[in-house]
């Protein structure tokens, strides 16, 4: 008989805001948002619970947030503090078990199957420890697998109500997974985005229970591999393990301009620097890439992407740039409109140690080059993380600023 797993999903409540309240206690009880300025097309990275009562939400343009809540205070982000506090929390989790899968700076799964105590007791202890040692609120979902634990956490937070952090703990007992999921909207399932939801609704399927009751083979016929996963997940089945180490699948660098850019040479220059940044990150991780891709965003917010498979994997900036430029030329020829966002990325990654050696350069030069790779890779990682958490273009290299940016400075 297969032993029952005990999985905990932890999410720090309004993490950035909670850290900012530690930095400045006067923010407590006020509507405020962490993120970029509206004049720079900033977005809300996180918002306090009082701000949420006005309809402010993460990933919302800051200008829209201010229209919803004119008294909203905008707080600059302090990523170094968020990273420091996140490391404290993750260290706390690993004191309980080394089977921790960190999903983001403020979210993680724990597999506590090997511990003797009931999972709910471990969850309560964990929540109390984080509140006492790190002074942060957190919510947890407890179940027999990752899918249900994550959804349980969402449900627990939504049911908490109140005007402050939910501090919720939602438990789904073994054997009750399908019953728990059945009344929830189908959008709660992983992999059900707007398009899939629309197709499900056309079939008359609106809840997870509706999906579970639908014939599995027909679901697979209509949706392919995704359909089989939907059928299993709707029944509360998920065998995925907690993964303690995750390899990068792709690397990319994007820039959102404060003013739309119509100068083709400027766009090419930004792409060149993005290619150099991506290449540095590849070298820093001893990766080569087999595919180059680009992304553009036009003024109407349509966002086409294109990619090309290389004849041979590479970590060379010139080759990445040449492939990206070729893809850009094709898209540019179709519209020739100002560009709001541009990005260069690579995927199809594989390990390949660099061939640089003491036979190629002197020892002092080798040390200097290795240090340059390391610093550029680290900088690119930070910029990518900031972009993901605080909004595209929230932080940019000085070389990517336009004349409009310089005028505002």
Which range does the strand content fall in? 15-25%
Question: Compute the gyration radius: what is it?
Answer: 24 Å
- What fraction, in percent, of the residue positions are helical? 40-55%
Instruction: Give the SSE string.
Output: EHEEHHEHEEHEHEHHHHHEHEEHEHH
Shape: globular
Number of helices: 15
Low-confidence stretches: 354-370, 390-394, 397-409
Strand segment tally: 12
Known CATH architecture of the largest domain: 2-Layer Sandwich
CATH topology of the largest domain: Alpha-Beta Plaits
Largest sheet, order of strands side by side? 5-6-1-7-8
Structural class: alpha+beta
Distance N to C terminus: 67 Å
CATH homologous superfamily of the largest domain, by name? Reverse transcriptase/Diguanylate cyclase domain
Largest sheet: 5 strands, mixed
Q: What would CATH call the class of the largest domain?
A: Alpha Beta
Number of domains: 3
Q: What is the average per-residue confidence, as pLDDT, rounded to a whole number? A: 87
Structure description:
The chain has helices at 15-23, 49-52, 62-68, 79-96, 119-134, 146-160, 177-181, 194-202, 208-213, 216-223, 225-234, 264-284, 317-335, 363-390, 403-408; strands spanning 7-12, 32-35, 44-47, 73-75, 100-104, 107-111, 138-143, 169-171, 250-261, 287-297, 305-314, 339-351. It has 409 residues and is α+β, with helices and mostly antiparallel strands. The protein has three domains: 1-173, Reverse transcriptase/Diguanylate cyclase domain (Alpha-Beta Plaits), CATH 3.30.70; 179-234, Orthogonal Bundle (DNA polymerase, domain 1); 250-408, DNA polymerase, Y-family, little finger domain (Dna Ligase, domain 1), CATH 3.30.1490.100. The strands form three sheets. It has a five-stranded mixed beta sheet with strand order 5-6-1-7-8. It starts with 6 loop residues before the first strand and ends with a helix. The model is unreliable at 354-370, 390-394 and 397-409 (pLDDT under 50).
């Amino acid at each position: 008989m297969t032993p029952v797993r005990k999985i905990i999903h932890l999410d720090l409540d309004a993490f950035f805001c909670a850290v900012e309240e530690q930095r400045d206690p006067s923010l407590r009880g006020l509507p405020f948002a962490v993120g970029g300025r509206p004049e720079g097309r900033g977005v809300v990275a996180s918002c306090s619970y009082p701000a949420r009562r006005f309809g402010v939400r993460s990933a919302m343009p800051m200008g829209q947030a201010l229209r919803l809540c004119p008294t909203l205070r905008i707080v600059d982000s302090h990523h170094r503090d968020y990273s420091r506090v996140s490391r404290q929390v993750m260290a706390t989790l690993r004191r309980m078990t080394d089977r921790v899968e960190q999903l983001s700076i403020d979210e993680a799964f724990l597999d506590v199957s090997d511990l003797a105590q009931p999972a709910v007791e471990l969850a309560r202890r964990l929540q109390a420890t984080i509140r006492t040692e790190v002074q942060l609120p957190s919510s947890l979902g407890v179940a027999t697998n990752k899918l249900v634990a994550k959804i349980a956490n969402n449900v627990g937070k939504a049911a908490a109500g109140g005007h402050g952090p939910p501090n919720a703990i939602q438990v789904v007992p073994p054997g009750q997974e399908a019953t728990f999921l059945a009344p929830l909207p189908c959008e709660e399932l992983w992999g059900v985005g707007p398009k899939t939801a629309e197709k499900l609704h056309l079939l008359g399927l609106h809840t997870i229970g509706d999906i579970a009751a639908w014939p599995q083979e027909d679901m697979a016929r209509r949706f392919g591999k995704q359909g089989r996963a939907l059928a299993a997940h709707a029944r509360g089945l998920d065998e995925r393990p907690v993964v303690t180490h995750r390899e990068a699948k792709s690397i990319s660098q994007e820039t959102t301009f404060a003013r739309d850019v119509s100068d083709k040479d400027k766009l090419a220059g930004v792409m060149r620097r993005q290619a150099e940044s991506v290449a540095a990150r590849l070298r820093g991780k001893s990766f080569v890439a087999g595919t180059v891709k680009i992304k553009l965003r036009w003024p109407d917010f349509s966002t086409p992407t294109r990619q090309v498979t290389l004849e041979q994997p590479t970590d060379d900036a010139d080759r990445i740039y040449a492939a990206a430029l070729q893809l850009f030329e094709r898209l540019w020829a179709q519209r020739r409109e100002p560009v709001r966002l541009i990005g260069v990325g690579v995927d199809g990654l594989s390990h390949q140690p660099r061939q640089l050696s003491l036979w190629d350069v002197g020892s002092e030069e080798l040390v200097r080059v290795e240090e340059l790779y390391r610093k550029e890779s680290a900088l690119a990682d930070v910029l990518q993380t900031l972009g993901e958490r605080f909004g595209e273009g929230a932080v940019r290299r000085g070389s990517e600023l336009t004349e409009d940016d310089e005028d505002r400075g």
